[in-house]
Amino acid sequence: MNESHAVYRHIAFPLTTFDYLKDFQRNYAGKHGVVLNNNQALALILSQHKALSQQVSA
């Protein structure tokens, strides 16, 4: 999860999206024993989505 560059933005999520993010963090921590912050969780979700999208497109 360590990238050489970072972009900082203030963003707002709908409550249901924020709840999904928090559920993802809890599930990840339960499965892997690692607590992710919001940035790490969102980066992982987007990375997984990108990989899945590329598989579907191929």
| Helix/sheet category | mainly alpha
Task: Output mean pLDDT.
Answer: 93
| Shape type | globular
Described by strand count, sense and barrel closure, the largest sheet is: none
Tally of individual helices: 2
The proportion of residues forming helix, as a percent range, comes to 55-70%
Radius of gyration, Cα only, in angstroms?
Answer: 13 Å
Alpha carbon gap, first and last residue: 25 Å
Number of strand elements? 0
Beta fraction of the residues? under 5%
Uncertain spans, ≥5 residues at pLDDT below 50? none
Order of helices and strands: HH
Distinctive features:
58 residues; mainly alpha
Report on this model:
It contains two helices and no strands. The chain has 58 residues and is an all-alpha fold. Helix 1 (15-32) crosses helix 2 (38-57). The radius of gyration is 13 Å and the shape is globular. The model has no long low-confidence stretch (mean pLDDT 93).
Secondary-structure topology with pairs:
Blueprint: H1 15-32, H2 38-57
Could you give a quick summary of the protein structure above?
With 58 residues, the protein is mainly alpha-helical. It is built from two helices and no strands.
